[in-house]
Amino acid sequence: xxxxxSDLRFNNxxxxxxxxxxxxxxRTGQMxxxxxxxxxxxxNWLVFWLYVNFSSILLAxxxxxxxxxxxxxxxxxxxxxxxxxxxxxxxLALKNTGLYFLSGAVxxxxxxxxxxxxxxxxxxxxxxxxIVFYLPCIIPPIVLTSVFSQSLxxxxxVGELLQKINPNYPINGPLRVNDSVIPTLxxxxxxxxxxxxxxxxxxxxxxxxxxxEIFESAKLDGCGPLREVVKIVLxxxxxxxSTKIVLLISGIFSASGPIMLLVTGEYRTSTIxxxxxxxxxxxxxxxxxxxxxxxxxxxxxxxxxxxxxLMDKLSxxxx
Length: 319
What we know:
Blueprint: H1 2-60, E1 62-65, E2 68-71, H2 74-84, H3 89-120, H4 126-138, H5 141-152, H6 157-165, H7 182-207, H8 212-220, H9 225-236, H10 238-250, H11 259-262, H12 272-283, H13 286-314
Antiparallel strand pairs: 1-2
Helix pairs in contact: 1-13, 2-13, 3-7, 3-12, 4-7, 10-13
């Protein structure tokens, strides 16, 4: 009897040890798998983000004098003069970038929300409209910009129609008007028309998660479309909207349109992204560009943190 009890205890201990070793091996294998999977992105981050940005920070405080690197704060003085001078390219680029950001936040995103809402209601030919709105995301930008610019010429279909409405229609089209904000506004129109599709997919996915019973109950209570959007849909997808807003804020200084494809950056259409490209290409002034990047980052980081904290408080909804 005692031998049987001892054997039973031995077997229990043996099985427990085997289970422990099996779990340990599984955890070790899982850890090795995670390390291997994360090695590439970690190395990529160390090389292409940390090293590059660290070098950029140093460049902001350096200057090249007769081939000798010296430490200085003159770059910040030059940057401040450029950003406050109304006749400077950077000042114009900052204004245009602000216009692109506002168009994305105030026009494109609300339009995408409305389009997503009506398509989620499965209106007539909603599948066709979904494809039409998403087509700009599939068609190559070079094709879209070519069609857009050619159609606006006086000989194009849209240009001929606008000429009949306005006899003073620009000879070279609205994209090529000197000393005017018209080219920038025209490109903003392009970004709005082609930007709805991407946001529409995101918001449609969020709206599809809302239980249909909520809409049925609202309909029985006599809730109209506008009230349904404001009181039901928007609060329930606010977490998605808040994520989109944070992404918009994080890209506020890189907001831009296809100015290289449409007007090669001419006709007062410069943005901060194009200004950086042009300064490096034409002047090779890496120090000024690094200073601009550092200043924009210092402004942007607390703004993103503040907006994120605000959005997290507003979007705490479960369904």
